[in-house]
Amino acid sequence: MGMFGQIFGQNRLREPLDFSDFATDMHSHLIPGIDDGVKSVEESLEMIRGLKDLGFKKLITTPHAMADVYTNSSDIIRSGLQDVRKAVADSGLDVEIEAAAEYLLDDGFRDKLEAGDLLTMGKRHILVEMSYIMEPVNLNHLLFDIQTAGYRIIMAHAERYSFWFNNKERYQQMLDRGIHLQLNLLSLSGYYGKEVKRMALWLLEHDMYSVVGTDLHNEVYLKELQQLQYDPLMKKLMEKSGDFINKEL
Fold this sequence. Notes:
Blueprint: H1 3-7, E1 24-25, H2 41-54, E2 58-61, E3 64-65, H3 74-91, E4 96-99, E5 102-104, H4 109-115, E6 125-129, H5 139-148, E7 152-155, H6 169-176, E8 180-184, H7 194-205, E9 209-213, H8 219-228, H9 232-238
Parallel strand pairs: 1-2, 2-4, 3-5, 5-6, 6-7, 7-8, 8-9
Helix pairs in contact: 2-3, 2-8
């Protein structure tokens, strides 16, 4: 049993953890009304305040960008970011906030790639996700084309793709291609189910993650994150914070 498995089920911590060693939360949905995240500026401020209280110094919010459901262009996201930044400034919150996007690798993604209409973080890092149902049939070619265009890929919440649970070599293949795997912190709490938590622990044991994020959508997520401050698994993860690239983003 590995390091993370050994502490699974241990008693909760008495004092809350501070997530500041990660510095940057690079995955969230904080622009009101454009995806399944926050619905109002007031809710956005509440979530931003909550993330700041957890210890994050910088927030990169990442609205969904999909062909059919959330058709968010770079201009739509930038406009929403301006509104959020103004509200943050007016409220006196001392936190840096930027925006990228969480791009679904769907039928419309190639059009965005060819148009150069992509928002990135850090050194041209781009956050992408897949359907939870099946791997895109052209995944390898699409990833190659993204990298050939000069982008560095971060695969969002890698532990949530159930079609890879019995095909774990795909994770190593992603790493071999230079792709970063991102952990949703709430996967450690079991928020997405036992199988997702088990996969997250396996990926951690094998040192496959290089990015962490909250994927914060609303108050329910925030309350779960606040509870995670008392989780021994999170304490062990914080001890490995230097292994992650969050501070570079």
